[in-house]
UniProtKB/TrEMBL annotation:
Keywords: DNA-binding, Phosphoprotein, Transcription, Transcription regulation. It comes from Streptomyces viridochromogenes (strain DSM 40736 / JCM 4977 / BCRC 1201 / Tue 494). This is Two component system response regulator. The keyword tRNA-binding does not apply. One of its GO terms (molecular function) is DNA binding. InterPro entries: CheY-like_superfamily (IPR011006), NreC/VraR/RcsB-like_REC (IPR058245), Sig_transdc_resp-reg_C-effctor (IPR016032), Sig_transdc_resp-reg_receiver (IPR001789), Tscrpt_reg_LuxR_C (IPR000792), WalR-like (IPR039420). Residues 3-121 form the Response regulatory domain.
Length: 221
């Protein structure tokens, strides 16, 4: 059972999400929060699998709340998905760098929301491919000179290759086809790379790929 915490200051939004999520046999809403402070408190108390976190909330906004969660080692298994009204909200970019696993627009289709919750728990893909590529493009546009690639010294050549493909937004299936390996092998390489680099999820792996210089702006297909 996937346990979800809803953090949004609009009760109507929370009610709509709860109705959709609770109707699924493999998902349950563990709790709700109306502001960032309450969200962090309930997350520490309940340890949900996924948090759907609104960016703009009173008391403590979603971005600051996400940082508190992702910087707490005891909450490393909690995945945060940001909720926003606009796909290119400027805070989304910083949220991903802060450790959020992805983001969704509030008017997303119900099936996409359900798929996103399941995908982020599986750690298998970054939500919507189209949104992911726009996010990566935004990161590329804002990125400074790449840091030294010493952090990648522990990776094998194959793992560097896989990380670069993750960095340009490819899914495990697309990586498998590109490298002519099985999807399971591709997933194993991605998982090992994340472990070696202490990355929470694929979103952080994308950021590390850019920050290390392994992937450069302009490489997007």
């Amino acid at each position: 059972m996937i346990r979800v915490l809803l953090a949004d200051d609009q009760s109507l939004v929370r009610a709509g999400f709860r109705a959709l999520l609770d109707a699924q046999p493999d998902i349950e809403v563990a709790a709700e929060a109306a502001d960032g402070e309450e969200a962090v408190r309930r997350i520490r108390e309940l340890r949900p699998d996924v948090v759907l976190m609104d960016i703009r909330m009173p008391s403590l906004d979603g971005l600051a709340a996400t940082r508190r969660v992702t910087e707490d080692p005891s909450l490393k298994d909690v995945k945060v998905v940001m909720l926003t009204t606009f796909e290119l909200d400027e805070y989304v970019f910083e949220a991903i760098r802060s450790g959020a696993s992805g983001f969704l627009v509030k008017d997303t289709e119900p099936d996409e929301l359900l798929r996103a919750v399941r995908a982020v728990v599986a750690g298998d893909a970054l939500l919507s491919p189209g949104v992911t590529r726009r996010l990566i493009g935004e990161f590329a546009a804002r990125s400074k000179e790449p840091a030294a690639a010493d952090a990648l010294a522990s990776l094998t050549e194959r793992e560097r290759e896989v990380m670069a493909l993750v960095g340009i937004g490819l899914s495990n299936g697309e990586i498998a086809r590109r490298l002519v390996v099985s999807p399971l092998t591709a997933k194993t390489h991605v998982s090992r790379t994340m472990v070696k680099l202490n990355a929470r999820d694929r979103a952080q792996l994308v950021v590390l790929a850019y920050e290390s210089g392994l992937v450069r702006p302009g490489w997007l297909g």
